[in-house]
């Protein structure tokens, strides 16, 4: 019936009917089929087993990364069989170029090739895909941000398979997660340093644990990423140059309603947004991505999804896929997905709360006190590991701050919606008391008292709550069995964040192990570290202005400017840290600093150019038509043009990024006030761009099929 209706209708209603038909077809898919499809497009477990058995192997082969050197041909053959059975005839080496946040769709790079070769003389094609094709590829290393590591005349770049993250299939293409290395051996991507950092942490961590009497094969970071985002009407998105080009509104008067009533968080989902997120989750399930929850967030039209915990490289790869899915699927539902940290003024922005723990290769969580005590046979293992991590936070808080210095985070950090720019850790009362006693020589197992609460209603049972309360104002709170790095930006690839966490933890483990091998007692080493670095622990309100002064007096890391944090990345301390841990060479680290500064300036330049174009081509003509005075808006335009010109005349990356920060956080904010005041006076039918009211309230502006009312 819907198809017949679509044939009869004309104009915009045709698109509406087709959308409704498409949605009806998608909704017909049952949850049982979704459950059956879980992991069907991911080459692990039963899926891999089915095809590897044809070649004399099993899925267990993939658990040992040495297969890339010994049995790549068999895996390649199995992948071809898998692809042909599922309509895929292409493969792609899938990697993570530097400088991709906010500007590169999917934040990934890939070259798609058919796994057959053409035979023109015979008029046919032949399958041709070898283990060598699977393991290694080649591309131009100079056409991505590289910080001077490559140039047009020295352009060699190579993609090499990463066996820690599973191969997956989308559409007609089998995607092979890879690292990206230059001809000189420099890392040109986000993932290679992360793998090196994980290797260093595993090496130094297993060494430390062995000295404590606990033998393990290896360690790894396990993470869970809570992804926040906005969904707005796509026709409104199409009427905003700033959103299309930068993901952020550079002007716009507040709607009469925002989040002041606290009415959005966990509210029933808008029906069209809910259908969209369900479709995203269904596609993710097929790829083996465990996106379990979905809910509304604090701001209007803001949502969140999150997966289960998993190995760091796999979880980051999957998060990038999720972000790409969100953008692609949203368009099918007449929506646009926004990942920028602060797309709208005066309402909450988005983050990517980063839950992090360290586990053994056999699944023991070193941050789970009872679990690690049982596995290691010692009550001291847990506080020693915690002491090492705390020492790393205190010593390398500058690197933690640099790792979250994506351009959009400048609007969030310290704005009472995300943790402040002071890097501290929160442990909660029971853990703090336990470690306080431990550092004074009182060794005992961590055994927090259970806390039971009653609702005061007889028919509602009493219930147990965690021993540690939640502190949403801390950048790095402990949550029972993991730390949560709450300050990570929603648009970020989290590889550098985890490279920093793993490297500083590896360094701390090494320092502890060196001291113990030098004759010190393990408990004494941890106690000395806690006493030295206790200053970095803060259990209070991080939003309290008094905390900033106290943090300064304690001497812990406080870096208000993201530009300054990026620039400090390549300090002598940090060059030595990364070199000692064999994670990044000096050239590689300096390149990442330079790319970060250039990326910041580039984002601000695009925002300023959008502001200028919107004023010249849309806003000022509308104000003139409304017969309003344009002097104030004209002065705002001139101020932004002057600030942008100053940026263009500066060659030094740090100075240019510093000018960009002033332009963005001072000049453009003042200029915006003039434009927003003009919008408040301009007749609504003359205002040429989508307003906050039109963008932020799907419930009021769209019907259940995604059509704008």
Features:
single chain, 709 residues, alpha+beta, seven-stranded antiparallel sheet, six-stranded mixed sheet
Description:
The chain is α+β, with helices and mostly antiparallel strands and 709 residues long. It has 26 helices and 17 strands. The strands form four sheets. Strands 9, 10, 11, 12, 13, 14 and 17 form a seven-stranded antiparallel sheet that branches. Helix 4 packs across helix 6. The longest helix is centred in the C-terminal third of the chain and has 40 residues, at 586-625. The two termini are 23 Å apart.
Short description:
The chain has 26 helices and 17 strands.
Cα Rg: 27 Å
Taken as a percent bin, the fraction of beta residues is 5-15%
Please estimate the helix content. 40-55%
Count of DSSP-assigned helices = 26
Number of strands: 17
| Shape type | globular
SSE diagram, text form:
Elements: H1 2-8, H2 12-27, H3 31-37, H4 45-52, H5 67-70, H6 72-85, E1 90-95, E2 109-114, E3 116-119, E4 124-127, H7 131-135, E5 136-140, E6 156-161, E7 168-170, E8 173-182, H8 191-211, E9 219-233, H9 234-237, H10 241-246, H11 271-286, E10 291-296, E11 302-307, E12 310-311, H12 312-332, E13 335-338, E14 352-360, H13 369-376, H14 381-395, H15 397-403, H16 429-439, E15 451-453, E16 463-465, E17 483-485, H17 495-517, H18 522-533, H19 545-554, H20 562-568, H21 572-580, H22 586-625, H23 631-648, H24 653-681, H25 692-696, H26 698-701
Parallel strand pairs: 1-8
Antiparallel strand pairs: 1-2, 3-4, 5-6, 6-8, 7-8, 9-11, 9-12, 9-13, 9-14, 10-11, 14-17, 15-16
């Amino acid at each position: 019936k819907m198809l017949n209706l679509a044939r009869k209708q004309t104009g915009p209603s045709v698109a509406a009917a087709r959308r409704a038909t498409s949605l009806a077809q998608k909704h017909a898919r049952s949850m049982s089929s979704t459950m059956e499809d879980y992991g069907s497009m991911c080459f692990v477990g039963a899926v891999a087993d089915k095809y590897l058995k044809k070649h004399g192997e099993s899925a267990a082969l993939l658990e040992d990364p040495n297969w890339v050197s010994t049995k790549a041909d068999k895996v390649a053959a199995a992948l071809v069989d898998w692809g042909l059975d599922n309509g895929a005839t292409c493969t792609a080496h899938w990697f993570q170029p530097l400088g991709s946040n906010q500007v590169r769709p999917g934040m990934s790079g890939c070259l798609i090739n058919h796994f057959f070769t053409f035979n023109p003389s015979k008029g046919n094609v032949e399958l041709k895909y070898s283990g060598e094709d699977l393991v290694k590829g080649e591309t131009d290393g100079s056409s991505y941000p590289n910080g001077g590591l490559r140039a047009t005349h020295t352009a060699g770049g190579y993609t090499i398979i990463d066996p820690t993250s599973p191969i997956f299939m989308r559409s007609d293409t089998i995607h092979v997660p890879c690292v990206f290395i230059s001809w000189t051996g420099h890392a040109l991507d986000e993932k290679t340093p992360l793998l090196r950092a994980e290797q260093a942490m595993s090496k130094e961590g297993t060494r430390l644990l062995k000295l404590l009497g606990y033998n393990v094969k290896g360690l790894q970071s396990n993470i869970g990423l809570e992804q926040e985002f906005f969904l707005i009407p796509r026709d409104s998105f199409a009427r905003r140059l700033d959103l299309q080009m930068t993901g952020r509104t550079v002007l716009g008067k507040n709607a009469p309603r925002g989040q002041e009533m606290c009415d959005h968080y966990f509210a029933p989902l808008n029906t069209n947004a809910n259908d969209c997120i369900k479709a995203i989750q269904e596609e993710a399930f097929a790829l083996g991505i465990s996106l379990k929850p979905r809910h509304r967030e604090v701001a209007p039209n803001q949502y969140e999804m999150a997966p289960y915990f998993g190995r760091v490289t796999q979880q980051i790869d999957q998060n990038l896929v999720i972000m790409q899915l969100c953008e692609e699927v949203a368009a099918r539902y007449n929506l646009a997905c926004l990942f920028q940290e602060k797309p709208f003024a005066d309402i909450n922005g988005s983050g990517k709360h980063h839950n992090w723990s360290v586990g053994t290769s056999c699944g023991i969580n070193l941050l789970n006190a009872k679990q690690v005590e049982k596995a290691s046979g010692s009550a001291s293992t847990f506080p020693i590991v915690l002491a090492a991590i705390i020492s790393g936070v205190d010593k390398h808080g500058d690197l933690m701050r640099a790792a979250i210095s994506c351009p959009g985070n400048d609007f969030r950090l310290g704005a009472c919606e995300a943790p402040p720019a002071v890097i501290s850790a929160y442990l909660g009362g029971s853990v703090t008391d336990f470690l306080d006693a431990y550092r004074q020589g009182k060794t005992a197992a961590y055994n927090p008292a259970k806390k039971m609460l009653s609702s005061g209603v007889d028919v509602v049972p009493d219930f147990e709550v965690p021993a540690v309360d939640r502190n949403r104002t801390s950048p790095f709170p402990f949550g029972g069995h993991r730390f949560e790095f709450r300050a990570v930006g929603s648009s970020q690839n989290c590889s550098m964040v985890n490279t920093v966490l793993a490297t500083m933890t590896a360094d701390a483990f090494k320092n502890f192990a060196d001291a113990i091998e030098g004759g010190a007692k393990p408990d004494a080493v941890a106690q000395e570290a806690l006493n030295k670095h206790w200053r970095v622990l803060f259990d209070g309100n991080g939003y309290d202005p008094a905390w900033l002064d106290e943090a300064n007096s304690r001497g812990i890391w406080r870096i208000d400017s993201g530009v300054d944090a990026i620039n400090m990345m390549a300090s002598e301390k940090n060059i030595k840290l990364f070199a000692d841990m064999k994670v990044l060479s000096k050239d590689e680290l300096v390149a990442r600093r330079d790319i970060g500064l250039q990326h910041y300036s580039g984002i601000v330049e695009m925002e300023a150019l959008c502001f200028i174009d919107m004023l010249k081509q849309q806003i000022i003509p509308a104000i003139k038509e409304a017969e309003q005075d344009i002097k104030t808006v004209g002065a705002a335009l001139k101020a932004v043009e002057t600030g942008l010109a100053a940026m263009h005349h500066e060659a030094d990356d740090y100075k240019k990024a510093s000018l960009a920060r002033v332009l963005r956080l001072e000049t453009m904010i003042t200029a915006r006030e003039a434009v927003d005041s003009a919008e408040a006076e301009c007749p609504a039918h003359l205002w040429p761009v989508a307003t906050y009211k039109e963008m932020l309230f799907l419930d009021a502006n769209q019907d259940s099929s995604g059509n704008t009312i």
